[in-house]
Amino acid sequence: MATRLGIPDLLGSAPMNEHVVQEGSTPLMAQYLEIKAAHADYLLFYRMGDFYELFFGDAVKAAEALDIALTKRGKHLGDDIPMCGVPVHAAEHYLEKLIRKGFRVAVCEQVEDPAEAKRRGAKAVVRREVVRLVTPGTLTEDTLLEPRAANLLAALGASGDDFALAAADMSTGEFTAGAVTAADLAAELARLGPRELLVPERLLAEAAFAPTLKALAGALTPMPSVKFDSASGERALKSLYRVAALDGFGAFSRAELSAAGALVGYLELTQKGKLPALKPPARISERTFMGIDAATRRNLELVETLNGTRTGSLLACIDRTVTAGGARELAARLASPLTDVRAIRVRHDAVAFFLNESDLRRSVREDLRRVPDIARALARVSVGRSGPRDLAALRDGINAAQALGAKLAVFDDALKPSAGEAQEARERLQSGLTQTRALFERLEKCLIAEPPFLVRDGGYIAAGAHPPLDDVRSLRDESRKVIASLEARYREESGVSQLKIRHNGVLGYFIELTPQHAEKLQSARARELFRHRQTIGSAVRFSTDELATLAGRIAEAAEKALAIEKELFDAMVSDVLGVAGALSDIAGALAVFDAALALAELAQEQRYTRPRVDESLSFAIERGRHPVVEAALAAEHAGPFVPNDCDLSREGGQRLWLVTGPNMAGKSTFLRQNAVIAILAQMGSFVPAERARIGIVDRLFSRVGAADDLARGRSTFMVEMVETAAILNQATERSLVILDEIGRGTATFDGLAIAWASVEHLHETNRARALFATHYHELTALASRLDQLACVTMRVSEWNDAIVFLHEVAKGAADRSYGIHVAKLAGLPEAVVRRAEEVLRALEEGREGHKPLARIDDLPLFSVSAPVRMADGKASAVEAALREVLPDTLTPKAALDLVYALKAMLIKT
Ligand code: ADP
Ligand code: MG
To answer: Tens digits of per-residue pLDDT, 651-695?
Structure first.
């Protein structure tokens, strides 16, 4: 671990060593404090020689977060100054840790040569400036980023009572803006998933925003409200795109200008003026994407599970991409399913094309595997943070893209009429390749095959690329050869065959002898030739005029070579920036190819079919499946997934289905699978069904499972009601609604009453296509009064007093809930099960007019008075076995097996 314990060690390497801190503010401390004051919200990485140092409170926080030693350095106003530091060469690793822990960092560099400062006077402090603010939404380093996830920066703008959200991805240059209301904000943020959101300070306190903003925690960056001024926003955008008016990009509202302007301003601030190549902002309207609120996203486990892991999510289940850019594209599509029929069909066309051309698909996917992350390398180049390896990534990316383009060219005739977005991507790729041909040739000629990470040490420019560089390099190499030949000559002259010429960072080149041999150099001639430089325990070191001259020449040549390499690097960087748009087109096209190919691969592998998507109000799914549950069953060898139909179409179907059936019968799975199929269809994927016709779903609502929202301090029932209210208030004829067991979180009768009223409202007022799962059989009575309501039930078969789940959806209603059967499967003690059966019978009779409680009072208490015991008073084998059972850990299958095992024991006894 790179911490230093002693101050002397630090002073040895720092150029400021002449200013040891004493009482009061030294010039160095004064400079530090001034810079720190301007960046109070950030940990200040203050460059001193080969280290970034942190002082005072920053040091205490960083030392703890990084698990490095906290030391002190001198005194400030009489107190010790806490200090810790990280070596510059390993800084990225520490930055990563700090960012993950929610810190933001200001990186302050020395911006002049220490020698220059000295010229200003012995007390002068090296000039330093903050060159970058490291915040979650503005990261570019691969070590700090998730390769397969986007890293969005968003800003919430305001103008009067209008609000807007702008979002940008530095790696793709994608930039969007759109109106948002306080009510929609949470849903829109859930769709975008920004790593950082800029908000005007004044909105933090507003009741309509506070809960949503608070939930963002570390991703929230409050800024002074003046930064969101829409007039300055407009000016900033005009100057960024060098246009006199923004009309060409669309008609932006004041709020959109406020958001987009604040975002651009923040990028300028954090990147210290160097902006990534942002595309002109695209306007997003609420019609662009299927509306999916935050709760529905969570409930359907689209990109992460309820436990917050990617594994087990729909995204993880369907992702067959082979590049990071493709993975980000696919994730973005899943997060934002489209509502425009044409745009969706264009995506389906591409999937269909690649599904058909399976040889082409395989071979292009092989090529794609070798494509580096062009978008992120380009982002680093744009903000001046790239190294030779980024240029090599661009070179290799273009190269792979060229091969791919050539391969696709063969298919041009087939692509044209029918391949949808594959054809569009092909054109984009081609134009990108044409514009980057010169750049590619230059990179190919100038860079070595596998260049180092850093510019600093040189050694990345290929031999033969630039004659002047070759000249200084050969000068350097010649001198090295001369030095090697010197060794032989000096051995001869001194008569010491063990004499060596060596090199280190401090002395440069020197002649080394052991102390005994050194004594032999006492001759006058030898003493004249060899000048003593240093004696250490095991060696005596000398130099000669000749060696010094050669060494000087080598150093000079090396320095010159470095300078030339840097110059060539800068020239290549500016070449890259000159065609940034074309490179981003290539990256974008490759991502589209990867996503389309991956969806085709998935369709082939999992037998997905092309859905028919249109403007109708149909929703007809034949033999649909839930991809995640199906995969889980397959992984556990737990039998096949049972496909099910669902028809909520206006024509021929009934648009509201009431789904009954016992627990564990598959109700929730059925509901979710239909929602998932709608999402997959509209994101441009094929769907896990034999046939599907879907009239565009404008908004998807779900209320699934009992997701406790303890984090936000609401009870399960409250969450349930909040989500239900949102649905009943907002769903329209175009929406798809999934309601799973609402009313469950409260007592039977008011729960039933709420469920009852909700079904009526959905049917009469919302008129949405809807699936409603419930354990309240009473609701099935509604079927006779509501003509668009159909009752379906999950079939079970009763067998030997046990039930078997068939997972089949059938017309009709469950006649009872089988709750006690399920309890039995779960291993509830026999006595409890029997008692429950008694109570149930009493309750059912009670419903028919008797007083249930009186009847129950009459029932003997089995569990207390008559436990099943062996005649000798010992517990039975069945009891003993039951005692071992942990019902919560049983899978349905294990529960069923248990029943058989218990039954077998009964027969034995
Ligand atoms: P419910 O909501 O009725 O209690 P779930 O939908 O949670 O039931 O399903 C319980 C379990 O049954 C699932 O975890 C899955 O293992 C299995 N299951 C559900 N639907 C199917 C199906 N169509 N085919 C096979 N197994 C299924
Ligand atoms: Mg359920």
So the answer is: 777 999 999 988 888 999 999 999 999 999 999 999 999 999 999
Q: How far apart (Å, rounded) are the C-alpha atoms in residues 588 and 432?
A: 10
- The residue nearest atom 19 of ligand 1, judged by CA position, is 666
Mean pLDDT of the chain: 86
Task: Please tell me the least confidently modeled range out of 472-476, 494-498, 642-646.
Answer: 494-498
C-alpha triplet 672, 675, 678: angle, nearest 5°: 150
pLDDT for 705? 54
Q: Where are the alpha helices (DSSP H) in 199-285?
A: 201-204, 210-215, 230-241, 254-270
DSSP string covering 263-313: HHHHHHHHTTT----PPPPEE--TTTB-EE-HHHHHHHTSSS-TTS-STTS
Q: What are the residues facing 197 on neighbouring strands?
A: 154, 220
Query: Residues with Cβ within 5 Å of ion ligand 2?
Result: 668
Q: What is the DSSP letter of 455?
A: S
Ligand 1: residues whose CB is within 6 Å? 629, 633, 641-642, 661, 663-669, 807
Residue 490 token pair? 């000096």
Q: Rg of the Cα trace of the chain?
A: 36
* CA dihedral over 774, 780, 785, 791, signed as positive or negative: positive
The protein residue with its alpha carbon nearest to ligand 1, atom 20, reads 666
Most ligand 1 atoms within 8 A of CB, residue of 636, 641, 664, 739 to mutate = 664
How far apart are alpha carbons 586 and 432 in whole angstroms? Answer: 5
Q: Evaluate if residue 90 carries a pLDDT over 70.
A: yes
- CA-to-CA distance for 846 and 840, rounded, in angstroms? 9
Q: Which two tokens stand for residue 330?
A: 């696919």
| Residue from 896, 862, 868 nearest 883 by CA | 868
Amino acid at 787: D
Distances (CA, A) of 677 to 202, 284, 339, 642: 41, 24, 14, 15
**Length in residues, the chain:** 909
Classify each residue of 74-103 as buried b or exposed e, where b means 16 or more C-beta atoms within 10 Å of its C-beta.
bebeeeebbbbbbbbeebeebbbbbbeeeb
Report the run of H or E that residue 646 belongs to, with start and end.
strand 644-647
